[in-house]
Amino acid sequence: MHGRTGRHKILFFCGLAYTLCLFSILGISVDMKNGKGAEELGRLKEAADYVDASVVEEPSKIALTFDDGPNAQCTGRLLDGLKKRGVKATFFLIGMNAEDNPDLVKRLYDEGHLIGNHTYHHVDITKKSNEEARKEIEETDRVISAITGEHVAYMRPPFGVWQKNLELEMDVMPVMWSVDPLDWTTENTDEIVNKVVTETEENDIILLHDCYESSVDAALRIVDILQKKGFEFVTVDELIIE
Ligand SMILES: [Zn+2]
């Protein structure tokens, strides 16, 4: 019995040694295979990146901006339409309108739109003293940031006029526009849509107002047409930063 047990032991150890040896050989060959595979994969990825960069074009980015809201009658419908289309826009709010419509401010923020400052009383900054101008901006920032918890970093000066020294003093960046269909002068939706879709090019900033039903209708039709043309709507910070 002892002899057999001893033979068994020897066989057992031989088997173990063989198995360990086999595992180690297999292990090395798997490692080698993996190493080679990773190298090959890296080469393929490099080639794919090169093809991506040279052949596949990024969609042209543009930004929709809305001034003078939020508006109790129109802004909600606009937000429904933008959400349905997966579009984020930028809204430059008048401080007192924001104060009157906190739920809309919250909704703008929660749905991923960028909120900017449009002064508290919609004033011409250049016709105000520095102190008054600063108060108009700070008061609006206070109302909005109390709802969103964030400092309002961008601003659109009413009437498109701005004092450069305020920018340095106030940590706020003015954002103008490049396509203006003068939507506030007409209720003709077709006119607004046609002007915007024929003029808009890559990196353009479109100016509309979310306090008119015709502008809301126009905005949603503009999105439908320009999305089909391959444009991507982004918030202005994405245009400015990139
Ligand atoms: Zn305005």
TrEMBL record:
Entries under InterPro entries matching the protein: Glyco_hydro/deAcase_b/a-brl, NODB_dom, Polysacc_deacetylase_ArnD
Top-level lineage group: Bacteria
GO biological process per UniProt: carbohydrate metabolic process
Any one GO cellular component localisation term in the record: membrane
SUPFAM superfamilies in alphabetical order: Glycoside hydrolase/deacetylase (SSF88713)
Keywords linked to the UniProt accession: Coiled coil, Hydrolase, Metal-binding
Residues covered by the NodB homology domain: 60-234
Gene Ontology molecular function terms on file: hydrolase activity, acting on carbon-nitrogen (but not peptide) bonds; metal ion binding
Residue ranges the record marks as coiled coil: 123-150
Keyword Electron transport: no
Protein name, entry field: Peptidoglycan N-acetylglucosamine deacetylase
